[in-house]
Amino acid sequence: MTDARVLSIQSHVVHGYVGGKAAIFPLQLLGFDVDAINTVHFSNHSGYGRFGGSKTTADELNTILRHLSSNGMLRPQRLLTGYVAGPDALAVIAETAQKLRSENPGMIYLLDPVMGDGGKIYVAPEVVPIYRSMLPLADIITPNYFEVELLTGIVLSDLSSFQNAIRELHVKFNVPNVVISSVPVTHALLSSIPEPIQASILSDDHTPGVVYAEDALLSITSSRRTSSDDPTPSDVHALLVRRIPGYFSGVGDLFSALVLAHYRPDRPQLADSQNPLSKASSIALSTLHAILVATQKHALALPEDERTETDDELDGVDPTRKVKRMRGRELRLVQEQDLIRAGSSEAWNGPHMVPWSDFW
Is residue 224 one of the residues assigned to a domain? Predict the structure, then answer.
């Protein structure tokens, strides 16, 4: 993509691949210039147990943004925002997103409302209402299932709850494109997933297989329909991905960057019942899964003391045990960069998200 510039506002670590470190390199590989503002500057991600650094204050963010603007450097074609720890800093980013949107209505904004995972919130609770206020500014949002619950107040447990949450994001918050990632597949949810989606599960060897509850993660895209006369609010696609054992960090950050990179609302008519969001998400999911498979393969080949099982008691006695384990599971972005580049080909023909025609 020629002369396309992304403004990335999210976390930074010196060692490893989370936040901007997981997003910027892939975006550059796919042809984007990236201007990066770091909301935190840490030694490494918190999963190591020991980390340190600084958080960028609201005043510091304003200073950076003011000088970028005065130099004519705040003119991105795309905006990507991720982890922000506190409400004051997030308020500055919300104001910036509003300003950029008013100056360039055609800018594509992907908002990743990073707040928590697995039922645990790891930002200040005061950021939740600010994120809600930012939703109408976004073209695409990429929350995980827990973040959808925080934004909508709806607990995702079955098909009906997903319908209510997605409808609220489209109608109440005016979000045109929603991607919900990494949804654990429960027995209740599995029974509602159509057979064509189950048959297309993405596994380590890219072959279909039997789907078991708790063995797979579900990703859903929902693109709002423009006709007010349409009885259903959106076109929904889904893809099941078989879980890869182990703990990986930066997965959501990489996924959001890949969705933004591959999202082309001006794409010509797509085959196989795809739309621009489902196409971008298909490429992102396939690329991400391949990188995770490669990362897992690398981790399993490490010496035994670098691939220990998680044990809070033993990790507490010897913190280096956890450090070694985390270090061995950093995303293999540099080593597997050809996987990232492959997604940019117009001839890409990997696994596609499957239309969920009777979702509504």
Answer: yes
Give domain status of residue 60, yes or no: yes
- Runs of H (alpha helix) within the chain: 20-29, 58-70, 87-103, 127-134, 145-152, 159-171, 187-190, 195-199, 251-262, 276-300, 312-317, 319-328, 337-342
Tell me if 357 sits within 8 A of 195, measured CB to CB. Answer: no
Dihedral sign computed on CA atoms, order 35, 131, 111, 104:
negative
| Segment of 167-181, 186-200, 215-229, 239-253 carrying the highest mean pLDDT | 167-181
Secondary structure (3-state) at 358: coil
35, 205, 253, 318: which is the annotated catalytic residue? 253
CATH number where 271 lies: 3.40.1190.20
Whether 186 and 157 have beta carbons less than 8 Å apart is answered as yes
d(CA 8, CA 11): 9
Residue 215: how many other CB atoms lie within 10 Å? 16
Longest dimension (CA), the chain: 63
Do residues 352 and 278 lie in contact, with contact meaning Cβ atoms separated by under 8 Å? yes
Is the predicted pLDDT of residue 356 greater than 90, yes or no? yes
Rounded to an integer, the average pLDDT of 327-346 is: 93
- Asked if residue 360 belongs to a domain, the reply is no
Count how many domains the chain has. 1
The upper half-sphere exposure of residue 240, i.e. CA atoms within 13 Å in the direction of its Cβ, equals 28
Does 230 map to a domain?
Answer: yes
| 253 part of the active site | yes
Instruction: Round to whole Å and give the CA distance between 198 and 218.
Output: 10
CB atoms within 10 A of CB 355: 19
Backbone Cα Rg of the chain = 20
- Domain holding 38, by residue range, is 5-355
